Amino acid sequence: MPTLSVSPLRFSRQEVAEVAGLYASNPEYCRAAGEYDPENIPAERVEADLREEAGTPGCEVLLARDGRERLAGILCLLDRHPTDGHPWIGLLMVHGSLRREGIGRLLASWAEERFREEGRDGIRLAVLENNPGALTFWSSLGWQEIDRRADRKHSRPCIVMHKQLA
């Protein structure tokens, strides 16, 4: 299993460029989400979007680095969703060159354990309906579909998933 360190995004020029590269390494996700052209991901736009995310009360944008200090993934956590009060994973993305090495599983477990330690009994996330690979990934980790609805920001069809922590 890989070794990862997780820390908040500090929005340095280097970090933002690394995150833009991480997005570019996942062209399938970019196409499914429709937010970025996978051929042209401007760092300024990535920074603006992540600053908006980080500015949301209770939201954290975290970077995961491997043992060689390479950016391995990004994780956005929301402490309490405004609709249901549960913690949510807003985004978990692994660098495309590091997929299938256990990094996604490790980050998901890290998020689950963090909320478990805080006494939370469940955690949620939404998977885009047009991203079946993500649905397979989360299902393999024991997450269960509980609803289907459009996401709040872009009205994209999503599958809401829940994992019991207690």
Structure description:
- With 166 residues, the protein is an alpha+beta fold.
- 33% of the residues lie in helices and 29% in strands.
- The protein contains 5 helices and 7 strands; from the N terminus they run βαααβββαβαββ.
- The chain has helices spanning 13-24, 27-33, 43-54, 103-117, 132-140, and strands at residues 5-8, 59-65, 71-78, 88-94, 122-128, 144-150, 157-164.
- A 7-stranded mixed sheet has the order 1-2-3-4-5-7-6, with helices on both faces.
- It is globular.
- The model has no long low-confidence stretch (mean pLDDT 92).
List keywords for this structure.
166 residues; 29% strand; 33% helix; alpha+beta; seven-stranded mixed β-sheet
Layout of SSEs?
Layout: E1 5-8, H1 13-24, H2 27-33, H3 43-54, E2 59-65, E3 71-78, E4 88-94, H4 103-117, E5 122-128, H5 132-140, E6 144-150, E7 157-164
Parallel strand pairs: 4-5
Antiparallel strand pairs: 1-2, 2-3, 3-4, 5-7, 6-7
Helix pairs in contact: 1-3
